[in-house]
Automatic annotation (TrEMBL):
InterPro entries: DoxX (IPR032808), DoxX-like_oxidoreductase (IPR051907)
Subcellular localization: Cell membrane
Organism listed in the record: Leptospira terpstrae serovar Hualin str. LT 11-33 = ATCC 700639
Family the entry assigns: Belongs to the DoxX family.
Keywords recorded for this protein, A-Z: Cell membrane, Membrane, Transmembrane, Transmembrane helix
Domain of life (superkingdom): Bacteria
Pfam families for this protein: DoxX
Keyword Membrane: yes
UniProt membrane topology term: Multi-pass membrane protein
Residue ranges of the TM segments: 12-34, 54-74, 81-97, 117-138
Name of protein: DoxX family protein
CC annotations in GO: plasma membrane
Main localization of the protein described in the UniProt heading: membrane
Length: 149
């Protein structure tokens, strides 16, 4: 079972995909966890989620997925689990947060953003859940250790 969790194809494409998704999601997680990049930090984010009807437990999981899941992707550690968390978070965001159609709000003509970004992130997460983190992933090193024992 562990072999399947850590196995990854030796692909630079997957490495690039993993790094891009992790680096794009991480600032969002740092906004929620530490208040960086104009965010509100952990407590205020949980309070905001609660005011929107999102339970604290779900808010906590969102913060974990966007911060520690993104770091997991950057390092290639638990790539499948990290991708799953980010994918689920993006599905939730597309359904519950972004109700302004498909397109981003490039010209400030709608009340908020669309969900096209979320679809891209979900697609990237699904690929990483299936194929793993590629080259230079900690998962690859763990997989090699498991196979050699």
């Amino acid at each position: 079972m562990l072999e399947k969790l850590f196995y990854t194809e030796a692909s630079w494409f997957l490495t690039l995909l993993r790094l891009v998704l992790g680096l794009v999601i991480l600032p969002h997680g740092l906004q929620k966890l530490l208040g960086m990049f104009g965010g509100y930090g952990y407590s205020a984010t949980l309070d905001f989620f609660k005011s929107e009807g999102i339970p604290y437990a779900i808010g906590f999981l969102v913060i974990v997925a966007e911060s520690f899941g993104a770091l997991g992707l950057i390092f290639g550690l638990f790539t499948r689990i990290s991708s799953f968390g980010i994918g689920i978070t993006m599905i939730g965001a597309a359904i519950y947060v972004r109700k302004n159609g498909f397109f981003m709000n490039w010209f400030n003509q709608q009340s908020g953003e669309g969900f096209e970004y979320h679809i891209l992130a979900i697609g990237m997460a699904v690929i990483l859940m299936i194929a793993g983190g590629g080259q230079l992933a900690v998962d690859s090193w763990i997989s090699n250790k498991i196979q050699s024992n």
